[in-house]
């Protein structure tokens, strides 16, 4: 199985390293034709405006959009999630091109600028159920977006309570702070074969999100095999799944 990692800018090396830890080779993608042989793609965090400009420069938009439309699994982390969303607010003047596909509206810098980056333990029951380990995951939020709205087909995997005045400073300085006026913002979603996390699993030692995505890829491959003509026989077996450690 070949999993691509969009390698225009941002934390693509860290995703490749996380994949290697779970026995999967990540292929750095910089050209449209490289997508043809891939079964899945990770779009890393970084800076979504820059990523869009580079994708435009390398003529990647048509091939990336086709990849999403074909139903191949795609996981966007942070800037990658913004890129994958249908709609983004809080963007630079003049807007920015999005890949689209994920039926969400994201706020590009919901928590504020770099100084308001923070870490917090987030409860992700789905991840714990499928991958085991602790119920929480250490979320690294760097100039993080948040998902403001999600469409009816979007499954919410995790949310985070933040002060309802969106006082980014207090979230950043004390994410565990108890306040009476909290509101929940969505921070991880799944829509069919698309996965989005506003935080950076590739910057932690916990590879459960990568394993979770790889299972989505395995399931998608199985579906492709069983929906192909005839009764599956030995020759139609899905590609071998990665070795989980
Ligand atoms: N860490 C990140 O990926 C930050 C994303 C950033 N808010 C953007 O606009 O792209």
UniProtKB/TrEMBL annotation:
Q: What is its EC number?
A: 3.5.1.2
Task: Check the record and name the InterPro entries matching this protein.
Answer: Class_I_gatase-like, PdxT/SNO, PdxT/SNO_CS
List of residues binding L-glutamine: 46-48, 108, 142-143
Reaction it catalyzes: L-glutamine + H2O = L-glutamate + NH4(+)
Q: Where is the active site?
A: 78, 200, 202
- Which GO terms fall under molecular function for this chain's record? glutaminase activity; lyase activity
Q: Where is this region: Disordered?
A: 224-245
Does Lyase show up as a keyword for this record?
yes
Q: Does the keyword Ribonucleoprotein apply?
A: no
Enzyme type, top EC level: hydrolase
Swiss-Prot/TrEMBL keywords: Glutamine amidotransferase, Hydrolase, Lyase
What's the domain of life for this entry? Eukaryota
For this record, the Gene Ontology CC terms, alphabetical, are:
cytosol; glutaminase complex
Name the Pfam families for this protein.
SNO
Q: Please list the GO biological process terms of this entry.
A: pyridoxal phosphate biosynthetic process; pyridoxine metabolic process
Q: Which residues form a coiled coil?
A: none
Similarity field:
Belongs to the glutaminase PdxT/SNO family.
Q: Which NCBIfam families match?
A: PLP_synth_Pdx2
Q: Which PANTHER family match?
A: PYRIDOXAL 5'-PHOSPHATE SYNTHASE SUBUNIT SNO, PYRIDOXAL 5'-PHOSPHATE SYNTHASE SUBUNIT SNO1-RELATED
Q: Spell out the protein name for this chain.
A: glutaminase
Upper taxonomic classification of the species?
A: Eukaryota, Viridiplantae, Streptophyta, Embryophyta, Tracheophyta
